Amino acid sequence: MQSGDPQNQEEGFANLLSLAGENIAALVEEFGAEDRDLGLRRWLLELIASAKTAGAIPILKEQLASSDEMLRYWARHGLEILDTKQSRTIL
Question: CA 34 to CA 69: how far, in whole Å?
Fold first, then answer.
């Protein structure tokens, strides 16, 4: 996803999408480490939101207060699709 080639970026995202749940810890770590590329942070949070795992709740909760509208969107979306008592309470 960090490739300069848009096609490679899209393919990398698509490949990770099906593996997001299995790699939630790594995705959260990468999200926390990425501080230069807002687009990449958005993609990482989209992957985290799509993981549908309770391990994503802390970062999703944190990003509800983000100054970036898209990060807030993906945080809310992730909590909505997780649909657990904890995620509903947060929302």
Answer: 17
Task: Report the C-alpha gap between 91 and 27 in whole angstroms.
Answer: 22
User: Is the model's pTM score more than 0.85?
Assistant: yes
d(CA 15, CA 12): 5
Cα Dmax for the chain: 41
Give the pLDDT confidence of 7-20 residue by residue, as tens digits: 877 877 888 888 88
Cα atoms in the 13 Å half-sphere on the side-chain side of 90: 24
Compute the distance between CA of residue 38 and CA of residue 70 in angstroms, rounded to an integer. Answer: 10
